[in-house]
Amino acid sequence: MQFIINIVIFAFVMGVIVFVHELGHFLAAKKFGVYCNEFAIGMGPKLFSFKKNETTYTIRALPLGGFVAMAGEADNPNVPENIPFERTINGISKIKKIIVLIAGIVMNFLLAFIIYIGIYLAQGSARVDGPIKVEAVVENSNAANLGLKTGDEITAYIINNNTTTIKDMNAAITSLVIEDVSHIIVRRGNETIQLQYPSTKLESFTGSQLAPNVKKITKLQSISFAFKKLTTESTTVFKTLSKLIRGKGLQHVSGPVGIFNVVGNAAERGIMQIMALIAVLSINIGLFNALPIPALDGGRILLTIFEKILGNKYNKKIENVLIIGSFLLLLLLIVFVTFNDITRLIK
């Protein structure tokens, strides 16, 4: 039963993120008069659809994507022949086309920002700069084997012989997963101790209860804290993506299977954790789509800029080859990370 509940929650989480992203594209396209024959959430066979005005709205079987079918796109054959060129995505000005492409990314960040405001308003408190406190350690657990003890304060970690002070708990934990951390530094009473950090990374904290510094905040302060949270998470994701591009940390990347597992864990901890997860995933998807890969929004924005610069010398056939080629590479990446997810689950 829990498995079925997790599937429903997973579909909800991914559906919300994809809906908001595609809604950004859709609203911007409609604003500029682009003909959109379909607005779809999910991929694969249609489960439900209805038509309003000139657009068919559909929900499809696989909650792992979505799309807005705009007139002028090479992979959209279902456009009536009488649609004028100026109502196609290629018929509007290049600036308007870039706005349409970037709108989905902006909506992902806006979703995360609104969620963070809601969380801070509900909690009435926020984490502030300071060390991570170890409130409890289970005997013979991974955390105990790491050397942590109740009452310790994790103040810093060492990467490539450089000491980095911990200011934000979430950013620190993410760094401890992704970065090449060799040691963590803890304050134990009047002592400062270095603990060697093993390759098991985040699993090393299993069996411990970690807590950040917390203070009460006003409703107005929730907006500034939400913006700071958005900035911190975005910076962390950006750093992670930049490392992945350089081939570092690929073994830590999760695909649909890994995300499903994370969603299940979040569901067990309540609605606030689910909403926080939606915010983090929305930032991830927004930044991932901003990468200069032809099949993604960022790549298509770059191609649009090249088209503007080159004018008549721009070759659409080359663009289509680049988009299809990069799309196939993304499919290979999904296969790779899914294999990693399954391997981690069966270990």
Describe the structure.
The chain is an alpha+beta fold and 347 residues long. The chain has two domains: 183 residues, no CATH class; 91 residues, Pdz3 Domain. 52% of the residues lie in helices and 23% in strands. The chain is built from nine helices and eight strands. The strands form two sheets. Strands 3, 4, 5, 6, 7 and 8 form a six-stranded antiparallel β-sheet that branches. The protein has a two-stranded antiparallel ribbon with strand order 1-2. β1 and β2 form a beta hairpin. α1 crosses α7. It is elongated and about 75 Å long.
- Please provide the ordered H/E string of secondary-structure elements: HEEHEHEEHEEEHHHHH
Query: What share of the residues does DSSP label as strand, in percent?
Result: 15-25%
Number of strands: 8
> So how many helices?
9
Mean pLDDT: 82
Count of spatially separate domains: 2
Distance between the termini: 24 Å
Biggest beta-sheet profile:
6 strands, antiparallel
Rounded to an integer in angstroms, the radius of gyration calculated over CA atoms is: 23 Å
The helix content, as a percent range, equals 40-55%
Principal-axes geometry comes out as elongated
Uncertain residue ranges: none
